[in-house]
């Protein structure tokens, strides 16, 4: 539940409740990218506890993206499923091996997929990409 004393939290809750399905997917990508970058930065600082927490949050988002796939629709969903599973594996590995380079590779994969989805959603009726405002 949003803290009514925190205007940012109220804004974020409203943004999520009123977002289109496409915007929600992009927000998930934004969160996974942000947490993966934060995990890599925490690794560089040798802050193992924070890096672990950020990796877990990124993994949870990738899992959410994977769980929302409808595998009955065909090859694209199946391929995304494999990509998401690989990302989760590499996030776990980066966390266990304290490897910011591997985390960076996952982040680049997430950024490429986010960019592709942004193009797909921008072509759907009634959608406007709000660069920078999603997941800020």
Automatic annotation (TrEMBL):
Main location group: cytoplasm
Pfam families assigned: FliS
Superkingdom to which the source organism belongs: Bacteria
GO terms (BP aspect): bacterial-type flagellum assembly; bacterial-type flagellum-dependent cell motility
Annotated keywords: Bacterial flagellum biogenesis, Cell projection, Chaperone, Cilium, Cytoplasm, Flagellum
Location of the protein in the cell: Cytoplasm, Cytosol
Listed GO CC annotations: cytosol
Family, as annotated: Belongs to the FliS family.
Name by which UniProt lists this protein: Flagellar secretion chaperone FliS
Species in which this protein is naturally found: Formimonas warabiya
């Amino acid at each position: 539940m949003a803290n009514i004393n925190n205007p940012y939290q109220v804004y974020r809750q409203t943004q999520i409740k009123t977002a289109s399905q496409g915007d929600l997917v992009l927000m998930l990508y934004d969160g996974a990218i942000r947490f993966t970058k934060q995990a890599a930065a925490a690794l560089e600082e040798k802050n193992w506890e924070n890096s672990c927490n950020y990796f877990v949050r990124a993994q949870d988002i990738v899992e959410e993206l994977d769980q929302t796939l409808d595998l009955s629709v065909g090859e694209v969903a199946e391929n995304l499923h494999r990509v998401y599973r690989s990302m989760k594996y590499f996030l776990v590995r980066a966390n266990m091996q304290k490897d910011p380079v591997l985390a960076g590779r996952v982040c680049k994969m997430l950024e490429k997929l986010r960019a592709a989805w942004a193009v797909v959603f921008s072509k759907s009726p009634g959608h406007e990409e709000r660069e920078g405002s999603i997941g800020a």
